[in-house]
Amino acid sequence: MVAFLGTIRPVPYSLRSFANQRLQLSLSRFLISVPRHGFSFSFPKRSIQASLHSESARNSTVAASTGEQSEIIFMGTGTSEGIPRLSCLTDPSQKCSVCRKATEPGSKNRRLNTSILVRFPGSAGMRNVLIDAGKFFYHSALRWFPTYGLRTIDAVIITHSHADAIGGLDDLRDWTNNVQPFIPIYVAKRDFEVMKMTHYYLIDTSVVVPGAAVSSLLFNIIHEEPFIVHDLKITPLPVWHGQGYRSLGYRFGDVCYISDVSDIPEETYPLLKDCELLILDALRPDRSSSTHFGLPRALDEVRKIQPKRTLFTGMMHLMDHEEVNEYLLKLKGTEGLDVQLSYDGLRVPINL
Ligand SMILES: [Zn+2]
Ligand SMILES: [Zn+2]
Prior knowledge:
Elements: H1 16-20, E1 24-26, E2 28-33, H2 46-66, E3 71-76, H3 86-89, H4 97-102, E4 115-122, E5 125-131, H5 137-144, E6 155-157, H6 163-166, H7 173-178, E7 183-188, H8 189-198, H9 200-203, E8 217-222, E9 227-229, E10 232-240, E11 246-252, E12 255-258, E13 277-281, H10 295-305, E14 309-313, H11 321-335, E15 339-341, E16 347-349
Parallel strand pairs: 2-8, 5-6, 6-7, 7-8, 12-13, 13-14, 14-15
Antiparallel strand pairs: 1-2, 3-4, 3-16, 4-5, 9-10, 10-11, 11-12
Bound molecules: zinc ion (2 copies).
The site of one zinc ion has 7 residues, from helix 4.
Pfam families: Lactamase_B_2 (PF12706)
Protein name: Metallo-beta-lactamase domain-containing protein
InterPro entries: Metallo-B-lactamas (IPR001279), RibonucZ/Hydroxyglut_hydro (IPR036866)
């Protein structure tokens, strides 16, 4: 373990506007504690706005080709190890048909770490807000950023501090070195404490050898209360992800995203009311694990929450995309449930 050293490099731009936005600097200049009540900000820092604006302008040109429609892009829909599993591909018996199918071009069984990109029109063009950057983030971005004409990452919101949610923070360096000056990260205090160990050099940049380029991240501590990212209200959805371990889902508009959950506390259900689109963890087809919903439990939760539409995510290799979706389709006829598996690269228009 590496101790957090506590010194940081100077922020490369004026902090005056932070004060204007009533943001409280604490711990380091790269850590901002978000007030618990009644704040609103959208990172309008004059000193950097010009440089960001040029990016936004370029980005809006790309966005114009797809309209100004808000949307979700599924960057990854698979469990931590990814699908296909290497151990299945090297198994002499070749008994795992899902992993074999996952190697075929365009297969919906090919899944990287769970993550979504939320795109919505802001005052300075389309905004790209990423939820989680896991250890396969580079590979996800490689597949979908050029394909969908994406360029900036306007913020990253973290669900929890497992490797499949934060392992890609290092890869953000390509953006902050070559696309934009920094990326705001929104993270719960407990997960920030973990990052001090796993990504100590992104927090305490004084340990970085001069001239070496690392991601330039601006950490914002969030609480289990709504916060604003580029004018979009985000409501944390606290859930359990294994006994005693908290993870956060997020609600924006009438979309609820819960990627890592083994139990939903009673106090979170009211936050899920009138959900249009629920994106929910469903690891395996037969049963739940100690840290994730299996499909039967996930379906029970859908019956309880009653969203208009549900897309499952976080599937392991036992979930065959076509077979499971065929089964789920039948539930529409029998129970009126609109439930399907998501897949990497899926684009879903949303209203925010
Ligand atoms: Zn397999
Ligand atoms: Zn996890």
